[in-house]
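Onboarding guide, step 5: your first structure request.
Type a short instruction followed by the sequence, for example:

Predict the 3D structure of this protein.
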Amino acid sequence: MAEVEASTAASGGDRLRKASGGVLCAFTLLFIGVLAFSIRLFSVIKYESVIHEFDPYFNYRVTQFLSKSGIYEFWNWFDDRTWYPLGRVIGGTVYPGLTLTAGTIWWLLNSINIPLSVETVCVFTAPIFSANASWATYLLTKEAKGHGAGLMAATILAMVRLMLVLAPAACILSGIALSEAFNVLTRSMKFQRPRSDDGLPAAGDITPGTSNTAATITKNGNITKEKTENVSKGRPSKKNRKEKEWVGSSPVRPEKEEKLCVLPAEASAMGILFLIILCGLYVVHCVWAAAEAYSAPSIVLTSHSHEGLHIFDDFRESYAWLRHNTEVDDKVASWWD
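The system replies with structure tokens like these:
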């Protein structure tokens, strides 16, 4: 009766632990999404909601045409203002994914009476999809190495300001490496704690790394300690091992074991401290890069002097002058670079 009550209490504790872990994981993923979205808003806060580069201005203009004229006109649109004097067939030469995505988001928001402009939707499309990319990275890494590695990889990707082709792969590998490093170091410290319930000696009696001591972690996470010479002396023959593995007509598979590299407690603590400092420096670098290096638009120039920060908004002022002082079909001569 006591054994049944103990097993019931243990199963209840496991369910509570899993439920609390799931809630904590959900809140962590929500925080990662907010982080990925917020770290890309420095440019909006510093320079208002504007399209920053020259090529995105073309995509913004194409999205404007899509939202006003529809999908069929978009596919057959010949733009005589682009690649002048040749012009450009937009439907056959543009990558439509970004334009169609921004146009669909604008249409959905306006259909539910959220009247945002096309420019605002285009500005905030990238921050929104950075959060989606972080969550997708978590799901992918979780299938490979578990929840801890998934959360670590998602956090790293959320703070990467410049999203290149290999950035997700690098973030996944970095998350797995950091998760495994923390796992080894924390398990090493856990192994060296005094354990009175399983008969293991205290931390002072354990000498990690010696030839006659080995740490073994079973599949359910239990840590056992073996003497290698005792194992070698009491090793059964192949015939006895086969007889023990077979009970009746069904085989009994031995419990999966994983060897653990046990480090001294001081080295484990120093390793954990080093990884925390490394992660902190990564956070500082990403925030600085997002705020300074990658948030200065090409169409808005800045300079620093003893008088402070100077902002030169000549490009947008010139575009505004042309828009108000020339006709729609006027041609303006310009040059590249």
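Each response can be followed by summary notes, for example: Strands lie at 78-79, 88-89, 213-218, 223-227, 246-247, 250-251, 257-259, 301-305, 308-312.
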